[in-house]
Design goal:
This protein is mostly beta strands. The chain is built from 4 helices and 31 strands. The strands form 7 sheets. It has an 8-stranded antiparallel beta sheet. The N terminus is likely disordered.
Length: about 575
């Protein structure tokens, strides 16, 4: 967990991590991306694929090390390059639209000196097949106009001087983080976004300035024209006006709830909920007015006793009870078969970043872990939630780290997906800044026999899912168990599935001697561990090729593997 770093300094460090070489310079004569892109030719995966479809499949060829196209002038070639904190929605036009935190290798997204808005914020890209993505453009052009009056309104209540125009003069002094986009209906889409304000509340010896969650709406994501609806919520403190807390006094953080990382859900009953928070005390759930998208009850001033700030939300998750500075962030909420699944990012966002999952019958909890050791995560989840993603490495390639802050979504036909940033490990040759490469990683989610999600190890390639035969599974495999190790890549080891149902487990499956495959459920059982399998791309192979992968969970860890 990141312990000795103020949240805002931490966020700044995240930005600086990608602030080295841009891979090129901007050309002032190149026009900006038009608001509405031309429709590209993107193949879609056939609904009922055949062996012929599989034989004709061509693996993606784009380079994961995208430094050669990192410059702004090359953004049409980015595909899933420069993806950070993504949110994905499937729109009525059949496209998947992805929105994200401001980030690019070399910070080229803010390098246009021709106008005060630079290249804008919350980049959008879209795809028909979740593999080939076209860049659409920025969804926000500059700092929302409501930020200044709202911040000064609260500062006046707190008895500190209002901010003057110079504070707001450069929109790039502010942070633009973690948009969450959902379809309300075919003609209404909502984006909840976060703005972090620079500086401290009132100079040295006081806590960092607050953040805001705002709301934008559009009727047509393809237009990329969003109407800002203004303020939704801000940081709340249960310490009254005791904001004279050093930025390094992590045990006494001024704010209880941190107004960043929103996630939004509409329940089957039609209720609208916002879940938000990061680090600090944990995540809060608050009901929204369905018609406006704003908080359902009137918000009081954002400081006071615990009872006075209760309208700012109910605590539903904390990593460590009574700890005000903890490495848990980026909640993502999804509903599936009677449960609300809460996906959580653990630890620092460079190398250690990993994803955990909990679930509840109610959107506002109590949330419990897969292994049954935590029944109510509002009382502290600690290290118990099952690890779904983790820094890892197969035998070829450099592997990936920083795989978290996810979006979870479905296609409306029972297929579910996980997408997040994923970074190349530190000090990869040819990259000028360690961990600066942030490639978007879309992966399939499968649901196991107990209704819990498992995330596939290899990225989604829209491979035709022709039925897998047991005979295809026989051969040499690479297996990884995702046992939690802070800041370390879990490395694969080889094992063999023999055609007669026996196996040589090696280090991947010690003391396991048998395997079997259930074709009706696409479930490979190794020993007693049940694993979901599917056809996928071997992204580490050169050239890339088709393979078969598996993913399963047991207790607090996942198991990943692919056939060599």
């Amino acid at each position: 967990m990141m312990k000795h770093l103020n949240k805002w300094a931490f966020l700044l460090a995240c930005t600086l991590a990608v602030s080295c070489s841009s891979g090129g310079s901007d050309d002032p004569d190149v026009p900006d991306t038009p608001n509405k892109p031309e429709t590209p030719s993107q193949p879609e995966t056939p609904n009922n694929p055949t062996s012929e479809d599989l034989a004709k499949y061509v693996c993606p060829t784009y380079n994961d090390n995208y430094t050669s196209v990192a410059a702004w002038t090359q953004h049409s070639k980015w595909n899933l390059a420069n993806v950070h904190d993504p949110s994905v929605v499937k729109a009525a036009d059949g496209y998947y639209y992805m929105y994200q935190t401001d980030a690019s290798y070399g910070n080229v997204h803010n390098s246009d000196v021709r106008n005060s808005n630079k290249h804008g914020h919350f980049f959008c890209r879209r795809s028909k097949n979740l593999v080939d993505w076209e860049f659409v453009g920025a969804s926000m052009v500059g700092l929302p106009s409501w930020i200044k009056p709202k911040l000064n309104e609260i500062r006046k209540q707190m008895g500190v001087p209002e901010r003057d125009d110079t504070y707001f003069a450069n929109d790039l002094d502010f942070g633009y983080w973690a948009p969450c986009v959902r379809k309300v209906n075919d003609n209404l889409y909502r984006m909840y976004y976060c703005i972090t304000c620079p500086g401290t509340i009132n100079g040295n010896g006081t806590w960092s300035e607050r953040a805001f969650i705002g709301l934008m709406e559009t009727s047509d994501p393809a237009s990329n024209k969003w109407e800002d609806k203004g303020f939704v919520i801000t940081n709340a403190s249960d310490k009254g006006l005791n904001f004279r807390v050093s930025q390094t006094d992590y045990n006494n953080c001024y704010f209880k709830f941190n107004a960043i990382d929103p996630t939004y859900i509409i329940t089957p009953e039609g209720k609208h909920w916002l879940i938000y928070g990061s680090w600090h005390s944990g995540f809060a759930a608050v009901e929204l007015d369905a018609s406006t998208g704003k908080i359902k009850v009137e918000l009081p001033k954002p400081f006071g006793t615990a009872e006075e700030i209760a309208p700012y939300g109910k605590l539903i998750f904390t990593r460590t009870l009574n700890n005000r500075w903890q490495g848990a962030e980026a909640p993502e909420i999804a509903y599936h078969d009677g449960y609300y699944y809460l996906f959580v990012a653990y630890d620092a966002l460079d190398v250690p970043y990993n994803t955990r999952v909990l679930r509840s019958k109610n959107v506002d909890g109590p949330y419990e872990t897969m292994n049954g050791t935590v029944k109510d995560a509002a009382n502290g989840a600690n290290e118990n939630p099952t690890v779904l993603t983790h820094p890892y490495k197969f035998s070829a390639g450099s592997g990936w780290v920083g795989i978290s802050h996810c979006a979870v979504f479905d296609d409306g036909n029972g297929n579910w997906y996980y997408v997040s940033q994923q970074r190349m490990p530190a000090n990869v040759a040819g990259i000028n800044a360690s961990n600066a490469i942030m490639m978007g990683g879309v992966r399939s989610i499968k649901w196991n026999e107990n209704g819990w999600p498992v995330v596939m190890p290899e990225r989604y390639g829209a491979v035709p899912q022709v039925a897998i035969k047991a005979s295809e599974l026989a051969g040499t495999w690479e297996g990884i168990d995702l046992a939690y190790e802070y800041g370390k890549q879990r490395v694969s080891t080889e094992f063999t599935l023999n055609a007669d149902g026996s196996m040589t487990g090696g280090k991947a499956w010690p003391n396991v001697k048998v395997w079997n495959f259930d074709t009706s459920s696409n479930t490979l059982t190794i020993g007693t561990t049940k694993l979901k399998v599917q056809r996928e791309v071997d992204w580490e192979a050169s050239p890339r090729k088709l393979t078969i992968v598996y993913s399963g969970v047991s207790g607090s860890k996942s198991f990943w593997g692919k056939k060599k």
